[in-house]
Design a protein that fits this description.
Blueprint lengths: L5 H12 L5 H8 L10 E4 L12 H13 L10 E8 L3 H11 L5 E8 L14 H12 L1 H15 L6 E9 L18 H15 L5 E6 L10 E3 L5 E3 L1 H9 L6 E2 L8 E4 L3 E4 L1 E7 L5 E7 L6 E6 L8 E6 L19 E2 L3 E4 L3 E6 L3 E7 L1
Parallel strand pairs: 1-2, 2-3, 3-4, 4-5
Antiparallel strand pairs: 6-7, 8-11, 9-10, 11-12, 12-18, 13-17, 14-15, 14-18, 16-17
Length: 367
């Protein structure tokens, strides 16, 4: 949308998804692909408010309506059309897009990065405890950002037909010294693991509107789950371990709950609760509970009121480290990794007590 033509977009869609006889499908077959791909999601533009064209929302919404017209469905393939949404606090962008083009989209994107200053992002591995809490405060602010965008979407789409796709989120630090400039290669510490856990906890509350959430990015860029080197080495980051621990919540039913805990006031008057949590029940009735104690120095004893616990078995794993700045390297790939957690026990028929060590993330399974 920033530089390509409508014709180019139309031909790409045909090339990828059509099974008919045409110049585009003939070219695809010539290039070695006989059958079309099953393409579901198609984004019509990216960051058009900035690097994608520096457009106004009014101008982009007109362009979107035009371009999406030529994202045709071929055969049984059905495209899920995603319009370029706002950058974090730009609520006017969402207002204009939903008003002018809402009925022409299936989804609207949103980008939100946990970054302090764009001109001085800071080191991924060298930071103070105050900077750690400041990071968590910024990460948690995504909840209010979501609420505000969702409120606008609800006004124009009360039936929640249009999904909100948070397709770029995560931490953004200065590039690692000695790496290629502009490739956004950064390390990943226990601090990043907390950003991942707290953000996923927020997303779980709004799944009636948030239908997709993509961390940026999976390998070697920004808050990556995997780091590689040019010698064939591979490292799993603390963020990877959080995603692996949280996968038990996927395709499960979210369990609402009330959480009471201590809170800490951090920079810019942001409030950081010392405990973050999410809970779900899977199709087999197994309950999974994820808890994060973000307190850098103190353990927390949590009491969970959950009727019907008598006779159930509980198991868990914990992700923590000696220091907030700890991270995995090619020389020491297991500095931060999950281990078995035995700090939870059932008390009576309806209570669970959990002793969470300082700076720890725990996932429990109750069955």
């Amino acid at each position: 949308v920033g530089s390509g033509t409508v014709e180019e977009l139309a031909k790409w869609v045909e090339y990828m998804t059509s099974d008919a006889e045409s110049k585009m499908t003939e070219l695809r077959r010539k290039n070695g692909r006989e059958k079309p791909w099953k393409v579901k999601y198609i984004g019509v533009g990216n960051e058009n408010w900035g690097c994608g064209g520096n457009m106004t929302p009014e101008f982009y919404s007109d362009l979107y309506r035009r371009y999406q017209t030529y994202c045709r469905n071929y055969g049984e393939n059905r495209l899920y059309k995603v319009a370029c949404g706002a950058s974090d606090y730009d609520y006017n962008w969402t207002e204009v897009l939903m008003k002018n083009a809402g009925r022409h989209m299936n989804g609207l994107s949103l980008h939100y990065y946990t970054v302090h200053r764009w001109d001085n992002k800071g080191s991924a591995t060298q930071f103070t405890v105050d900077e750690y809490y400041r990071t968590l405060g910024k990460a948690l602010e995504i909840e209010q950002v979501l609420k505000n965008h969702i409120a606008i979407m609800d006004k124009y789409d009360p039936r929640k037909r249009v999904g909100l796709l948070v397709d770029e989120w995560g931490t953004w630090w200065d590039e690692e010294p000695g790496t290629v400039r502009g490739h956004l290669y950064q390390q990943n510490t226990l601090r990043d693991a907390f950003v991942a856990a707290l953000t996923l906890d927020v997303f779980h509350k709004y799944t009636d509107r948030v239908v997709m959430a993509n961390i940026a990015q999976m390998v070697n860029v920004l808050q990556a789950m995997i780091l590689t080197d040019d010698k064939g080495g591979m490292v799993l980051t603390p963020t990877y371990h959080v995603f692996r621990m949280y996968k038990v919540h996927q395709d499960a039913t979210y369990l609402p709950f009330d959480l009471i805990c201590d809170k800490k006031m951090v920079e810019e008057n942001r409030v950081v609760p010392m405990i973050s949590a999410t809970a779900s029940r899977d199709k087999n009735g197994v309950i999974h509970l994820s808890l994060s104690n973000v307190d850098a120095d103190n353990s927390q004893e949590i009491t969970v009121e959950l009727p019907g616990l008598k006779g159930r078995k509980i198991s868990g794993e914990i992700l923590t480290a000696a220091n907030l700045t700890d991270h995995n390297t090619f020389e020491k790939p297991n500095t931060v990794k999950p281990t078995v957690f035995d700090g939870a026990k059932i008390v009576g028929d309806g209570a669970l007590t959990v002793n969470l060590p300082a700076k720890s993330i725990v996932t429990l399974e109750i069955k």
